[in-house]
Amino acid sequence: MRLSAKTILVTGGTDGIGLALARRLKLAGSTVIVVGRNAERLAAAGAESFEAIEADLSSEAGCTALLAKVADRQIDILINNAGMGAAFDVTAPIDMADVDRSIFLNLNAPIRLIAGMLDPLRNRPEAMIVNVTSGLAIAPSAKAPVYCATKAGLRSFTTALREQLSGTKIHVLEVLPPVVETRMTEANPHKKMPASECARQIVSAMEKGRDQANVGMTALLYAAYNISPAIARRVMLRY
Fold this sequence. Notes:
The protein is α/β, with parallel strands linked by helices. The protein is built from 8 helices and 7 strands; from the N terminus they run βαβαβαβαβαβαβαα. It has a 7-stranded parallel beta sheet with strand order 3-2-1-4-5-6-7, with helices on both faces. It is globular. The termini are far apart.
């Protein structure tokens, strides 16, 4: 897909992978609308000439509000990038409110936004839905069971959605990043990919019309899983 002259909505677009994506898509000639919930980061995105929309997508009300705000826009590409982790350790108290927010933001919100934007996307000459999952959607880590579950759920949804939309003008791309340098991964001790490089690989996959983008080390994990799912799971559970 040619990305010039496209209007693209990026959730979680004021920080990390989302902001890096917005910058690269803008360089490609797209009009980029970024969505976030932090006022300071929204203002910074606005200073970079992005249209910035405030919305908390960890709730039904936030998703409904965002859909209302873009109802009259001709959006060509929806990128569901917003995500968050939630601590779930059986040896410590569990904050179920935080768990519920994570599940909603990571899984419910993309489904709701897709459902709300299907008709407008169908009316575009060509359109795309990009769902950002994770290498952890292939094999989970015991340190992040909620995050892994939501990303695995979104991966399954994306596969089924792609089949439903086959033969239409809407292309569906799943992106599986490795550990990337973002605010969310600050405490992660593993080697991290720069967000700019992750964005470069995602945009390349969009331009090539790929169904799946295994970014960075995720490509090795995907290959290992195809050879031996059991070994890949054992390794990643300890990751």
